[in-house]
Write a structure and sequence with these properties.
The chain has 248 residues and is of the alpha/beta class. The chain has one domain (8-247): NAD(P)-binding Rossmann-like Domain (Rossmann fold). It is 44% helix and 15% strand. It has eight helices and seven strands, in the order βαβαβαβαβααβααβ. A seven-stranded parallel β-sheet has the order 3-2-1-4-5-6-7, sandwiched between helices. The protein is globular and about 50 Å long.
Length: 248
């Protein structure tokens, strides 16, 4: 097991349910966490203040704004010196039935790819010099089984997660041996998005999952921790956190 104590993690979308769970888990492992948010300033600052350990910080930056990410890299370099783990968790979607091709308009398609794919790539590009230092770093892209199954909130969302997984494999080859790159791909997660769905939809998802529940944010956070602390000879892999959902 690799010790994470004293190391630095940058988590994007840190104010959301999955991002906050990841931040708490990495802080509990002794990491210093940089919590990146776009809009949820109050929630993110409250989260940072309650994390175990010391030296945590928040930073406002949109992942689709390269100038703001350059500012993030400069600030982290000055205050932390390095980055050991980057978690690309920021993302967006909106439900559009897959048969409704007109409902998936160009603006939404562009926004989904700009945030979910280009944003993750831009974070890697901005923080690569810090991840290359020392023993090397780890990038964890929070993907989705929608990238493999083609079932998700809309067609563009599924495609953006497939693109993210493809990027994981490409970067794992391109950045080795100094930087490992892994996708963590949840199924349904019982968070803000899922809880807006009708209860019968959530129950249907539980019934269609071999383990008979949908994921909690903590399940995703534990997968990220496992990749960082235990799966230290893995790179370019897609780690499913879906309870076996594609099996049924």
């Amino acid at each position: 097991m690799a010790s994470l104590a004293g190391k630095v993690a940058v988590v994007t979308g840190a104010g959301g349910g999955i991002g906050s769970a990841i931040s708490r888990r990495l802080a509990a492992a002794g990491m210093r966490v940089v919590l990146v948010y776009r809009q949820s300033q109050a929630a993110t600052e409250t989260l940072a203040a309650g994390l175990p350990g010391e030296g945590h910080m928040t930073f406002q930056a949109a992942v689709d704004n390269s100038a703001e990410l350059a500012g993030l890299a400069e600030t982290v370099a000055a205050r932390c010196g390095t980055v050991d783990v980057l978690v690309n968790n920021a993302g967006m979607t909106r439900p559009v039935p897959h048969h409704d091709l007109d409902g998936l308009d160009d603006a939404l398609i562009d926004e989904i790819f700009r945030v979910n794919w280009r944003g993750a790539f831009a974070c890697v590009r901005a923080l690569k010099p810090l991840l290359m230092q020392g023993e090397g770093g780890l990038i964890v892209n929070i993907s989705s089984i929608a990238g493999r199954t083609g079932v998700g909130s809309n067609i563009a969302y599924c495609a953006s997660k497939a693109a993210l997984d493809s990027m994981t494999r490409s970067l794992a080859r391109a950045l080795a041996p100094k930087i490992r790159v892994i996708s963590v791909a949840p199924g349904w997660v019982e968070g803000e998005y899922a809880l807006r769905m009708p209860p019968e939809i959530l129950q249907e998802q539980r019934d269609k999952t071999p383990l008979k529940r949908i994921a909690q944010a903590a399940d995703v956070a534990e997968a990220v921790y496992a990749v960082a602390a235990h799966l230290t000879f893995s790179t370019g892999d897609i780690i499913a956190v879906d309870g076996g959902r594609p099996l049924l």
